[in-house]
Amino acid sequence: VMLGGKHDEL
Amino acid sequence: MNIFRLVGDMSHLLAIIILLMKMWKSRSVAGISGKSQILFAIVFTTRYLDLFTSFVSIYNTSMKVFFIGTSYVTVYFIYQHFKPTYDSNHDTFRVEFLIVPVGGLAFLVNHEFSLLEILWTFSIYLESVAILPQLFMVSKTGEAESITSHYLFALGSYRALYLLNWIYRYYFEGFFDLIAVVAGCVQTILYCDFFYLYITKVLKGKKISLPA
Fold first, then answer.
1. TM segments (chain B) (predicted)?
2. Which residues of B touch A8 (CB under 8 A)?
3. CA of B203 vs chain A CAs: smallest distance (Å)
């Protein structure tokens, strides 16, 4: 699920 | 960031560097599936479209640029630069049988019905099966060069390490992404028989020879 509305993984 | 994800990303980086070095040094793409490399280029292109819209960190952005750039260089090496050494007769996996179902699934099962999110989901699902043409080619040719085996081991290890990363993040950050976890499990499971062969054979100096 997005952290703060974005994907933070590669 | 945690150690599992960092080692996983480094393993992924290493896999890509091993592959490029193998091609450049041996001036040959023998034994490499161009279809898998095309799928990886699609995976990175559809996953990193947020490259310009959302900034996470210098590390994140630079790795995305590196992965996209090297995936296109790899495809160029196979289909242009070292084309005479590309073994298309053994690279016959029907990738449309992967792309269509994965595309449909991404459309139906995703976190948010928006273009960027559906493409991200498509990329996650596609990555989990993108290695199949390569594994299929190794089984067809009946063997793999040891350098190709090292490439596959590093590539398979990266997502296995991401599974540990997701366990870590679940317990320490309350982060959980079911789509990425399920696809990551499928992706890692597909490498299992290769991992077994790699550990029992390649590490003893033998070559991998799958039953053709």
1. 6-24, 36-59, 65-82, 94-113, 119-138, 174-199
2. 56, 60
3. 29
User: Could you give the ipTM of this predicted complex?
Assistant: 0.90
How many whole angstroms separate alpha carbon B141 and alpha carbon B59?
A: 38
- What's the pLDDT band for B81 if we cut at 50, 70, 90? very high
**Which two three-digit tokens encode residue B209?**
């020879």
Say if CB B43 and CB B130 are below 8 A apart: yes
pLDDT at B212: 47
Return the residue of A nearest to B65 by Cα. A10
User: Looking at residue A1, what is its pLDDT?
Assistant: 46
Q: Which of B123-162 are b and which e, b meaning 16 or more Cβ less than 10 Å from the residue's Cβ? A: bbbbbbbbbbbbbbbbbbbeebbbbbbbbbbbbbbbbbbb
Question: What number of other Cβ atoms are within 10 A of residue B94's Cβ?
Answer: 10
Cα–Cα distance list, B54 to B28, B63, B196 (Å) = 38, 14, 39
